[in-house]
Structure formats: C-alpha cells, structure tokens
User: What shape does this take?
Amino acid sequence: MAMLTITLGGCSTHYQPRPGPRLSIVMQGGSIAYYKDGRTIEHGIAGGGLVEAVEDDPEALEAAETYHGRMVGGLVSYGIGLACGVGALAYGTTTAARDDGSWSDTQAALFVGGLGCFLAGSITSLALFASAQPYHFDAINIYNDNRERRYRIPQPLPVTAPLPVTAPLPATALPPISTPPPVTAPPSDAPPAQPN
Assistant: This one.
C-alpha cells in the first residue's frame, strides 16, 4: 500500500501553467490532464478529454477525434482478445480435467481458436494504441498553432530592410554649372531726359 501511495504521489506535479489560450498537458492524480484558460480537463479512459479541450478548433478537433477513436478501438480489441484468451484457458482446463486428458479435434480447434483470437486482439490493440499517439500530439500542437487565428491576436508588422542609399555622384561626373546672363532693363520708348 505504501508503495502504491509513493508511486501515485510521484505521478503528480504542483506546477500549474499560466492561464491562457494555450493547451498544456499536466499530471493530475497519476494520469495526464489538459489545462487551458484556467481550467483542468480530465484525459478520460480513451482520451475523450482531448476532444473536449480542442472542440473550438475544427482542425485540432479532427485529430483529437481520430486519437479518441483509435484509443476506443484499441480498448475494445484488447477486451475482446482478453476475453478470448481467458475463455480458451478456462475451456482448456475444464475440458482436460473433465475428460481423460485427450482432446477431440473440435476441442483442440476451439482452444487454438481462442488463443488465436487472444493474439489477434492483443496485436490489433497494440497497433491502434501506437498509431493513436501521433494524433494526440498533433491535436495539441495544431490547437496551439492556431490560437492566434481563434483569438485574433494581432501579429507584429514585418520588419523590412531599409531602402538602399545611393552614393553621390563624383564632381567630375556632374555637368558644369552655367551662370545665368545679367538681367538688363528693357529699352524704353520715352525720349531721353534733357539736362536743364
């Protein structure tokens, strides 16, 4: 009991992410949970909490639903395989104890079929669990990447390079400066003044 308490105590954390639009993963009570906008959302047995956490982003929601669907499929196939395995073992032990120890072809086929069902269910569940994990990460990353679009956070203006400055032309390349001609008064039609 003490070992279980120590193990579960080691699987939780006291760190709380800053409240905001980002989706964060936290540990709570020995299992993962999601934290956003100041509230914690439980992961759930098959990851249904992720679907709830990203429901306001259609692209992230699609990845979360794929993750949830594969987790549910993995649990169902594991349960079926486990039931087949337990059934095969129970059938085999009761049949062997009841009879003289030799099995008929039908009994052997049922036993081998139950073990085959167990093996197929186990392999299928492992494949579904493994293929679900990338969608788990995709849903969280897509949700966080799209937060600017959802919350209309203004983006900073892009930094542009300054306009190039051209060097002044050398003095020899400039045309000579011409001086304008002197301005003279236009001739008048009045007769010149006579001295007194």
Observations:
- Residues 1-8 have pLDDT under 50 and may be disordered.
- DSSP finds five helices and three strands in the chain.
